[in-house]
Design a protein that fits this description.
238 residues; alpha+beta; 2 domains; five-stranded antiparallel beta sheet; 32% strand
Length: 238
């Protein structure tokens, strides 16, 4: 395969990854707290042998998580929480601490606030939050302070990654940060609300169509190149 074919193949690989990411975004339009993703393309330059010029190829291997705010929907649930700002809930999972914007919580048999999957919500010190089942109505302030009957019990830990580029999706609406976590000082909690996905369906569909067309154009080029090379081989073989 010649250089033009290699360049097109690397581009096709990146476009395929972007189509997969866009399709995943569209599939999560209704997922509470979902953060849309995008593919970051970078240039890979390789020095060729002899006096030929360098070969430039496009690589679409990196992903970016977009942290723009999603809309808030009122539910009235006392343990439904929505974050306004740049913070995340800190969740304890079997694989370690994870981040999420999905604020639908329940109380387990032990009285701990947990996600529907049973992952425990952590306070500002990294400990589970315990709310007695018979303690009465639960109030949660904008700074995350959990109280019952006016008596504070705990404060929900809201954190943010020092570098958003170090966020990695672990499936659904759970994210892992490979870097340092800092307190989300500007985040505000709203009790009785849930945050919607921040995916814009019109934008995602328009981008998906554009990427599909670009991929089809690249595929057509590769097919023409393959036919050209076959024709050359047939001619030289005669």
């Amino acid at each position: 395969m010649d250089n033009a074919g290699f360049v097109t193949l690397t581009r096709q690989s990146g476009l395929l990854r972007e189509m997969q990411v866009l399709a995943h975004n569209v599939a999560n339009l209704s997922t509470t707290g979902y953060r849309r993703e995008g593919v970051v393309f970078s240039e890979f330059v390789r020095r060729l042998e002899g006096s030929e010029e360098t070969l430039s190829m496009a690589a679409g291997n990196a992903r970016q998580t977009f942290l723009d705010q999603g809309g808030l929907t009122r539910t009235g649930g006392s343990l439904d929480l929505a974050i306004e700002g740049d913070g995340f809930f800190l969740i304890e999972t079997p694989a370690g601490e994870r981040l999420t914007r999905a604020g639908h919580f329940l109380r387990n048999e032990a009285g701990e606030m947990v996600t529907p999957d049973g992952h425990r919500l952590l306070d500002a010190g990294g400990a589970p939050i315990f709310v007695p089942a018979d303690a009465g109505p639960v109030g949660i302030a904008g700074d995350g302070t959990v109280s019952v009957g006016g008596e504070p019990l705990a404060q929900i830990g809201l954190v943010r990654p020092e570098d958003p580029a170090q966020l990695r999706r672990e499936g659904g609406n759970l994210l892992q940060s490979t870097g340092e976590l800092l307190p989300a000082e500007n985040a505000l909690l709203h009790q009785g609300f849930l945050e919607e996905s921040n995916v814009n369906p019109m934008t995602e569909m328009a981008r998906l169509i554009a990427v599909q067309r670009a991929y089809e154009a690249g595929q057509s080029f590769l097919e023409r190149e393959d036919e050209r090379i076959r024709a050359v081989i047939r001619t030289l073989g005669n």
